[in-house]
Design goal:
The structure is a homodimer. The first copy, chain A, is α/β, with parallel strands linked by helices. Chain A is 42% helix and 22% strand. The first copy, chain A, is built from 10 helices and 11 strands. In chain A, strands 3, 4, 5, 6, 9, 10 and 11 form a 7-stranded mixed beta sheet that branches. The longest helix of chain A is centred in the first third of the chain and has 26 residues. Chain B binds a DNA duplex through helix 3.
Chain lengths: 308, 308
DNA sequence: GAGTATTCTTAAGCAGAACTGACCGATGGG
DNA sequence: CCCATCGGTCAGTTCTGCTTAAGAATACTC
């Protein structure tokens, strides 16, 4: 019978590309991975790895094994989920990947509720950008990811991930509170000459924001660039920049910035994804349900955000 | 992750009824089976076995695990079978890079044959210029490249690539169908004053065409420049330009253009290259063999091209 | 072109996992 | 009541699988 532990190594090798990468990911020494894969090769009696330069590539036979391994791992995960849901008390560990503004706005409430209602569930949280978070969830580094999606930027679709919309989040033009002699831009067109802060190139947010400016007829003067939306807030509130920011960043704290709703009412979509095989795990179901409630809590306090 | 070896013991226990029976069936001592199942119980944290009289019975949770174990074992068995049959039938993915006129003339037939004769082989095709395609094949972005070579322009030699000529392709002077009062050029010299369409500067095709004109004693008036040979055809057929075009561009569709064979009988060479190391991969061998047949098919229909 | 950094492989040694065998308590048939 | 059968436990042994270290091949860098 094929050894599933070794097959898993082969699968990780396909994902990560190098033995060293597999070893790193699974906390082994590269030597251990090498030996185990040689062993697997000997067992099946077929060449699985071929050295190519200083790395190795999978032979077509290895690809076949990997494709079946996927299903084995899925089944095992489903087995664990079924076992867990047959019990009455909900327990286990849920590893969550979450992007910054959700981490700040949603997770504190969600963690509090989890702690009081599901004390046996341990929630681990890591901050990650949506794209890598989705990939890593697929690769079993996380159990649940909270990701965002800007209008016109569909997130990569992993067929094995079960996706559910958590909420939507209006994006507004944020401008400095006092005008220091300048007039408040009442629309995105009015901010054509302002200094902008945006996220780094290559992010969906940046691309969307630039497009919004171009649709308004100008090329934004992006003077500040940072992935940290908290910095965006500060730059706006201190009168140094304007920005297009989703409402979630203001949650839990008021702002002196002036917020202008855009005519198209753009919305950022926030969703959760879990591996399909683990979607029935009670602990994961619980986290999702609690997140829904955290969203309601936050929406209730959203009166703090003036309509602009 | 659940240990499949232990799950298997649990499954055997369901079938055989007693630990001793399992041990007997799998050539273990009963003690080993007992210890392994206790271990499994500890890992999942759920009671799996309950003593009943002098035997043990599976708890409902154990039954859940067993039912999933069935599927795991089935999948593993299928994996072994797929692996075994992959040794006799040809499978795998072949990534092909191909330049435009071959993509249009050769690949449709080749893909059809592949699909019917080697359904287990997945062929991926990307259109690329020969030079970058060769480099990318060498760099493992592609498995097979279909490239061209003009007379006097040896393609870059990558020692690691295994190159094989696929066919040669006569290059002819193509002139507009009706002469609108002008006389048909009967030779390249006769087109000295015509408007030319050629590929962009820097391509082998352009360089060769310019040289051909200069050998004929004139500098061509290159009024149109595009890498798309389909556009060349249109410009010629619509009476706006003359061009030097290989026969392959006309394949599969007739033309109203007049084709003049040049005295030197220039030929473009079309070849395939694969990495030396992968040149014996059955799927790649199959693609090459099928390409050869596609060439024959196309040559059979080449009567459509008038000798000029 | 030499030096450096990666990556994989192999060898040697060691810790822990897994198995065997002996023993014990419990059970149920005769 | 007796004893064969079964499962659980403990001690001891075997062997798998890990780490470290050394080495070779390859690719990058100055």
């Amino acid at each position: 019978m094929l050894d599933v532990r070794r097959l898993r190594l082969l699968r990780e090798l396909q994902i990560r590309g190098t033995l060293a990468g597999v070893a790193e990911a699974l906390s082994f020494s590269p030597s251990a991975v090498s030996q185990q894969l040689s062993q697997l090769e000997k067992e099946v009696g077929v060449e699985l790895l071929r050295t190519s330069g200083r790395r190795v590539v999978l032979t077509p036979q290895a690809e076949i094994l990997v494709s079946h391994t996927e299903e084995v791992l899925r089944t095992l995960e489903r087995a664990e989920a079924a076992l867990a849901s047959s019990l009455t008390t909900i327990t286990g560990t849920v590893r969550v990947a979450v992007f910054q503004s959700a981490a700040l706005a949603l997770m504190p409430d969600a963690l509090s509720i989890m702690d009081s209602e599901y004390p046996e569930v341990r929630v681990e949280m890591v901050q990650r950008e949506p794209e890598s978070a989705l990939r890593e969830t697929w690769a079993r580094d996380f159990d649940l990811v909270i990701a965002e999606q800007y209008p016109g930027h569909a997130a990569p679709r992993h067929p094995e991930l079960d996706r559910r919309t958590l909420t939507t989040d209006a994006i507004r033009l944020a401008t400095p509170p006092s005008d220091r002699g300048r007039s408040h831009p009442a629309s995105i067109e009015g901010a054509a000459d302002a200094a902008w802060v945006m996220e780094p190139r290559g992010t969906a947010s940046r691309h969307w924001a630039e497009q919004a400016c171009r649709r308004a007829g100008f090329e934004p003067d992006v003077r500040f660039e940072t992935a940290d939306l908290q910095s965006h807030m500060r730059l706006v509130e201190s009168g140094n920049a304007v920005a297009l920011l989703p409402d979630l960043v203001w949650i839990g704290r008021g702002t002196t910035a002036r917020l202008v709703l855009l005519p198209e009412h753009p919305q950022r979509t926030i969703f959760t994804s879990v591996r399909e095989a683990s979607s029935t795990r009670p602990a994961i179901v619980a986290v999702r349900e609690v997140l829904d409630r955290a969203v309601l809590l936050v929406a209730g306090s959203a009166g703090a955000v003036p309509p602009g």
